[in-house]
Predict the structure.
Amino acid sequence: MNRRAVALALTLAALILGACTVRADEPVYLNGWFSGAYTPGHAIPVQFDTNAKNDAPVQVFLYRLPIPRAIAFARGSEVGKGANVTDLVRVGSFQATAPKPNSSIRTGAIPVLPIGYYAMSASVRGASDIYKTYFDVTTLGIVTNTVRNVRSLFAVDLRTFNAYSGRTQGEIHNGSMTRMLTFDRDGLAIDRAPLGKGDSPYAIASAADGSTMLVRLDPDNQYDDLGFVQTDRPIYRPGQTIF
């Protein structure tokens, strides 16, 4: 091979290597879009975004999240890369991989998990930070509504979106204050006691199958009264009558 051919081969190798590696001065990031509540009995698809080259997979670890720690996640005191998962019990792992060469997307699926709260920790080779979040496997959902500081909480079955047919128990927590919630046969609980302006108030509800749902609540008087009006057209000019 002559010198010109050798130089050409080295140039092509350098170009290929540069396309497949991250420069030393280029930070590797890892983002994810995942949280919420999911019904049991199904794998859960997940997706991440990263600039890691060579189609490096995302390594994901799953941990069982006790309710007190789930509350800390829900209230925002343990969120993001600062969340601590080292003391939690690991219950599974998987890899999220690139669906095609040179893609920034990594996809995978959380295996079927029993009812409960879980924490997720995800990392990719070379990234300086770790993506962490939490999620709930549950049959129980809670829909909330607040009008003039009166809170309505409705227990729904996430499998059917009908009223939850089983017995539902609940509590409202606000700082050192705790009070019980009573759900009627239609799955409705009304809370009229003042909530005040405490630190991240929340409600917690549970069902007989072990499902638990945490929902954050708005402190009293956080918003002015808000209403919605449906009209016969999307835009009105000044002075026109609204029907």
Observations:
- The longest strand covers residues 116-124.
- Helices lie at 3-20, 67-74.
